[in-house]
């Protein structure tokens, strides 16, 4: 699943560099197009583009060449290891340049500067404890939300302001099974691990709903509450 998610986020023109065809992704080409803003085609102008650093000689201290899905490669000021995926912010005027000029920036920069969604990142956690202990944000997650059919009605919950939010879903057997399979966590019930343990689908009728259905239902149910609390 991790490979499929990373493949899905990667712009089509870069996939051959990062995902050679092999047995772990036999059905990748059957996925619907994501059509995300960072999945750009050749004739679309954009201030930002995703690229891969090329193994192409550059004078010492002069930066790196990056393939960004255009006929012209980009020349950035930073020296970066070939094969690395980077987000490139292009200079405003590149019309008369042999190479597009720009610089490597954080993947968050398009969102911060232009409020433009720029895809998602994937983090693999070996167990339940790793989800919390290996959080990439300093100070961890401000708010932890567990989704379960044993949780309280989400409509009764008001969330505090937050910077980094975690929403966790279990599989078909719920977060209870995740806890049972992790001996490193000292907790008798999964709700002890979260600030909020809620049910976003009170009357689904069937005995269980799939995780993918639960994700869509939950995000739709919580979006107004979460947007109102985001810092």
Automatic annotation (TrEMBL):
<keyword id="KW-0489">Methyltransferase</keyword>
<dbReference type="InterPro" id="IPR029028">
    <property type="entry name" value="Alpha/beta_knot_MTases"/>
</dbReference>
<protein>
    <submittedName>
        <fullName>Putative methyltransferase C9orf114 homolog</fullName>
    </submittedName>
</protein>
<dbReference type="GO" id="GO:0032259">
    <property type="term" value="P:methylation"/>
</dbReference>
<dbReference type="GO" id="GO:0008168">
    <property type="term" value="F:methyltransferase activity"/>
</dbReference>
<dbReference type="InterPro" id="IPR029026">
    <property type="entry name" value="tRNA_m1G_MTases_N"/>
</dbReference>
<dbReference type="InterPro" id="IPR003750">
    <property type="entry name" value="Put_MeTrfase-C9orf114-like"/>
</dbReference>
<dbReference type="InterPro" id="IPR012340">
    <property type="entry name" value="NA-bd_OB-fold"/>
</dbReference>
<dbReference type="Pfam" id="PF02598">
    <property type="entry name" value="Methyltrn_RNA_3"/>
</dbReference>
<keyword id="KW-0808">Transferase</keyword>
<comment type="similarity">
    <text>Belongs to the class IV-like SAM-binding methyltransferase superfamily.</text>
</comment>
């Amino acid at each position: 699943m991790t490979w499929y998610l990373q493949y899905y986020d990667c712009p089509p023109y870069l996939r051959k560099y990062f995902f050679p065809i092999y047995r772990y992704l036999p059905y990748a080409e059957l996925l619907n197009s994501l059509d995300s803003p960072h999945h750009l085609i050749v004739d679309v102008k954009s201030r930002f583009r995703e690229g891969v650093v090329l193994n192409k000689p550059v004078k010492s201290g002069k930066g790196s060449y990056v393939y960004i899905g255009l006929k012209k490669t980009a020349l950035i000021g930073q020296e970066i290891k070939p094969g690395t995926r980077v987000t490139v912010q292009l200079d405003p005027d590149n019309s008369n340049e042999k190479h597009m000029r720009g610089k490597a920036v954080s993947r968050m920069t398009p969102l911060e500067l232009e409020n433009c969604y720029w895809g998602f990142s994937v983090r693999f956690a070996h167990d339940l404890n790793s989800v919390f202990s290996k959080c990439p944000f300093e100070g961890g997650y401000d708010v932890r939300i567990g989704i379960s059919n044993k949780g309280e009605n989400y409509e009764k919950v008001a969330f505090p302001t937050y910077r980094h939010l975690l929403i966790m879903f279990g599989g078909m057997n719920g977060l209870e099974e995740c806890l049972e399979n992790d001996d490193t966590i000292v907790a008798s019930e999964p709700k002890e691990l979260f600030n909020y343990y809620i049910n976003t689908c009170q009357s689904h009728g069937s005995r269980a709903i799939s995780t993918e259905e639960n994700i869509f239902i939950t995000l739709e149910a919580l979006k107004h509450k979460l947007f109102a609390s985001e810092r």
